[in-house]
Structure formats: structure tokens, C-alpha cells
Amino acid sequence: MPKTRLNISLDYDLADFIKLYAQENRTTASKVITQFVLGLKRRSHRRHSETIISDPEFSQALTEAHDRIKDGSAQWHTFAEVFGE
User: Fold this and answer.
1) Quick one: which of 13, 42, 23, 12 has its CA closest to 31?
2) What is the pLDDT of residues 28-70, one digit of tens each?
3) What is the Cα 73 distance to its own chain's centre?
4) What is the Cα 68 distance to its own chain's centre?
5) Per residue, what are the HEC states of 4-32?
6) How far is CA 70 from CA 4, 22, 37, 63, 73, in A?
7) C-alpha angle with apex 17: 43 to 63, nearest 5 degrees?
8) Distance (Å) of CA 77 to CA 10, 69, 72, 81, 84
């Protein structure tokens, strides 16, 4: 999709927060704002993004994986280690 430039004015503390948040999450300030606005758009059009997880075992495994990623205890592997290439 083609992009356009939008100039906005923010308080210094909010601008600094967005920049720091983007850096900590390995993204850009533009992408942070885009995701925020997309969330507003979805809510205004009643098209909420919902995750539908019907299998309780899958749901539990997903929750456990998410928790391990958040607390830093997840063990990461290279592509070659996982797929043998």
C-alpha cells in the first residue's frame, strides 16, 4: 500500500516514550503509531481481531510458550538445529 507523510505534534515525553518503546521492541515509531491507529480503526468498524483457540491442549501450550518468552526462560534454537540443515 502506498504511504503518505503525516506530521503530528506530541508532547516531548510522549515522543520520547514512543521512541524508547520502538527501540526496545525492535520496531519504528511509525509502526507503533500505525498499529495503534489500526486498532482504533478495527474497533470503530467492529472488526475486532480475535484469536479463536478451540483445542484446550493447544491453548495451554500457547499460553505456556508465551509465558516462557515473557519471563526469558524460553530456549531458542537455530534453524539448522530445528530442521537439520
Assistant:
1) 23
2) 999 999 999 988 887 776 644 455 566 788 888 888 999 999 9
3) 19
4) 16
5) CCCCCCCCHHHHHHHHHHHHHCCCCHHHH
6) 35, 17, 25, 11, 8
7) 55
8) 41, 13, 14, 6, 11
Task: Kindly report whether the global pTM for this prediction surpasses the value 0.85.
Answer: no
Which amino acid belongs to residue 82?
A: V
Residue type at position 37:
V
The C-alpha cell at 57 is 491442549
Distance (Å, whole) CA 41 – CA 1? 17
